[in-house]
Structures are given as structure tokens and as C-alpha cells.
Write a structure and sequence with these properties.
Elements (H helix, E strand, L loop, with lengths): L8 H121 L1 H12 L2
Length: about 140
Amino acid sequence: MAGPQTQTSEEKLYRIVAQDLAARLRDLEKLHPRVNALEQAVTEIRYDFREARSEQQEAHRETHAALNAFRRRMDHDNRDTVNALNDTANATTKAITSLTEKVENLARKVAFAAGAIWMVLGIGGLIVMFRTEVLRLVALAIGG
């Protein structure tokens, strides 16, 4: 290239463009460590997200297993409760049936006793009313 005063406008333009490109290259070289740091940070963030996702999936599996175990335990407990209620209902039904039978038997005995008492009272009343005739009949039956 020629000296600064003998340069043509085209050469001046080339020189200005070259200086501009050199300045931009220096700026890029200054930014290179920052870009590398950003790339490293993005890589670490991706790794952290993957690790967090893995931990979340593991926590989800543990929660799901715990919920299933709880549900099975509650089903078992509920089944025991239902069985206990059924046993109680059956025992209560048997007790009521037995009590009903006993009350019916007692009512039958009371009715029979009441009938017997009324019969004795009736016979006694007839004997009192017809005492003279009854005494003659008894005497005839015994001694003739």
C-alpha cells in the first residue's frame, strides 16, 4: 500500500473496513471467555434440570407407592370394619331371634297358666253354685 496521502478512496475504504473488522475481532476475542462461561452455565443448568427431573420422578414413584400402600391398608382396614359390622349384625340378629323365641315361649306359658287359672276359677265357681249337687255326685261316685 502507498502512504496515507497517496491512497485512493478505495484503499482508504479497505483500510477503514480492515480496522473496523480488526476492532470487532478484538471485541469478539474479549467476549469469548464470557461466551464460554455462558455455555458452561447453560450446560450446568441443563444438568441441574435433568437431575431435578430425575429426583422429581423418583419422588413421584415414592409418593405413588406410598399412596398405593395407604389405599391397600385402608381397604384392609375397611374390610375388617365391614366384617366386624357384619359379625355384629349377625350376632344381634341371632340374639333378637333367640329373645323372640323365649318371649313367645313365655307368652305361651303365661297364656296357658292364665287359662288354667280361669278354668280352676270357673270350676270352683260352678262347684260353689252347684255345691249340693256336686256333693251328691261325689258321694255317689265314692260310696255308691
